[in-house]
Amino acid sequence: MNATGNYATHEMDSCCQPNSTHLSYDEALKVLDNHCRNIQHKTEQIPLAEAVNRVLAKDAVLDRDEPPLARSAMDGFAVLNCDGVASREIVAVNYAGDVGKLSLGSGQAIKVMTGASVPTNADAVVMVEHCQVNGNQLTVTELPHKPHIRQIGDLASRGEVAVKAGQIIGAGEMATLASCGVSTVEVYPRPRVAIVSTGDEVVPYAGEILDHQTRDSNRLMLEVQLQQFGACVIESRHVLDDIDSLSDVIESQLPQVDLLITIGGVSMGDKDYLPQVFSQLEIKQLFHKVSMRPGKPIWAGHHQQTLVIGLPGNPVSSFVGSILFARPVIDAFLGCFSRRVTPRLAIAGSEFKSKARSDFMVSRFDDSSKVVATISSGSADWRSLTATQVLALVPPNSIIAVGNHIEVIPV
Question: Across residues 84-94, what is the average pLDDT?
């Protein structure tokens, strides 16, 4: 059993079986979605202080009304409006954190600071700018047009949901949870992931390199992406183009992880051995090749509880493929499949064209907040990734003119 979940045992839908034709991106995503519906989620309790970027598994509710007492919204004097602008006696001062004097008599006022409790019968706080003070006497020069009092429950009521399950916990959520008196939270465990890069030409990125070699930068890129997606990378290694070596490494990792991702070796080259290795290891294919650019050769399958995704080796293809396919799977383990690949509308700042496949173009926002394609020489051009903010989705055989709406997926 994996660290984060297991699968119900029933037959896969027919749409999840291998198909001789290439799936569209939407069809491929649906295949993954259907498979990920079988995940039976586990949860864990962790201290709130350690919960940043985790996904909340259970609604968090307020343990009291907010505010629990009527509180001043500004520095000033709590008064009874019925006294008008007559002189009042200042009988007390309430600071934030004081229980303070909780009732007012006619002709009385209490000096209050922002956030301080106000008397139960006070119906207004007069801001300091509209008051004159002489000793313990207060003269109101202008009665307020609104009370400037936050009444009990104005912000929220006890039992009200403050943070919903499925929410990624950031700084704002941390503050809200702490304000609810939460000290531990129930979250989804991070899925455990292994990465295997392939290729005889691939060498460590930090060492010396010959002209015919390629630095192993994709694997480092993927490690960062997966961690940002919320996964826990427990293994990352490079393997040469050798069937036995690939088989040994992949077989050893399958029982240890929820998701195994390979880089390279899934296309049509003489040494693209991974489809053969996956078959020998009885990893069941969900799909191979998607009608999209970049990343057409992508492979997906599963072995018992473990999902397997084979990404193409070109850096832009790996980058895009991990966003479009690995991130939804990680989201599934974190409670909501494809949460972060739902397209959003933006305005095109340059012309976008596609041919017969869906294009996912690495793009950025220009100074006028319009989407423009990142300068690129193709899927091997790793330089284009440094300025990428979104993937611009261009449907097959389409032209999106400047100023028109375009769908984008944040990276």
Answer: 93
CA pair distance 209, 212, nearest whole angstrom: 8
pLDDT at residue 106 greater than cutoff 90: yes
Q: Which superfamily does 344-410 belong to?
A: MoeA, C-terminal, domain IV (2.40.340.10)
pTM for the complete prediction?
Answer: 0.83
Q: How far apart are CA 324 and CA 338, in angstroms?
A: 9
> By C-alpha distance, which of 311, 281, 282 is closest to 299?
311
Rounded-to-integer distance, Cα 184 and Cα 194, Å: 29
Give how far the C-alpha of residue 60 lies from the chain's centroid of Cα atoms, to the nearest Å: 18
pLDDT of 101 > 80? The answer is no
What is 5-42+190-333's CATH superfamily? MoaB/Mog-like domain (3.40.980.10)
The answer on pLDDT for 16 being more than 50 is: no
Q: Which residues is 149 bridged to in the sheet?
A: 72
**For residues 333-366, b (16+ Cβ closer than 10 Å) or e, as one string?**
bbbbbbbbbeeeebebbbebebeebbbbbbbbbe
Give the CA-trace dihedral at 89, 92, 95, 96, to 10 degrees: -90
Q: Which amino acid belongs to residue 169?
A: I
Which of 369, 365, 382, 401 has its CA nearest to residue 313? 382
Output the CATH code of domain 46-65+156-187: 3.90.105.10
Give the whole-angstrom CA distance, residue 72 versus residue 94.
10
Tell me which CATH code domain 71-150 carries.
2.170.190.11
Quote the tokens at residue 308: 């397997």
Residue ranges per structural domain of the chain:
5-42+190-333, 46-65+156-187, 71-150, 344-410
Cβ 196 vs Cβ 249: under 8 Å: yes
Start-to-end CA distance of the chain, whole Å, equals 31
- CB of 33 within 8 A of CB of 338? yes
Give which of 315, 358, 201, 192 is closest to 261, Cα–Cα. 192
* Interatomic CA distance for residues 86 and 360, integer angstroms: 71
CA dihedral 353, 358, 364, 368 (to 10 degrees): 50
